[in-house]
Amino acid sequence: MNREELREQLLAPVLQWTRLGRQTSRLMTASNAVISYRSRRLLRAGAISRQADWDEVALMTREKVEVPLEAASAVAVAMLPAAKQFWTHAGLSMLACSSDSMSLLGSRNAEEFRERQAELCATLINVGVGWWRAFGGLAEIGSQGMAPLLREVQANAERLAKR
Questions:
Q1: Residue 13 CA: distances (Å) to CA of 7, 8, 159
Q2: Residue 114 domain-assigned?
Q3: How many domains, the chain?
Q4: Which of 27, 114, 133, 151 is 20 to 30 A distant from 99 in Cα terms?
């Protein structure tokens, strides 16, 4: 693995978490707009008497159930390949490190020891990069879970802004 490949692999999780942070920021901004609009409307109206207000309350109630369930199912679907990748990486990492360690212990001379030590170091770097990429995968799972929430909140903000 050359420096550019290593840099890209180390930078990818940072970008994944940055993307999730930006998505969270958009969600908070749009949520604030929706909550502000709906709260002002309900405070001005006093008792809910118009059918449009009842429809808005029904929509808010439905969203409070449907959207979190959709988000939870998106996270569950994303977790299956991530869990498989995690356990596969854990098993392969253990085997590779054990194999390289035993190979290092079986070295017959200094030259062989140096070569096998370099192999073990390369394996450890690959294991570390793999775990770092798995950490970035958590951001992707969070992003997929947040996508339905963000979609709904942004749609509400756009719809309510037109009123």
A1: 11, 9, 34
A2: yes
A3: 1
A4: 133
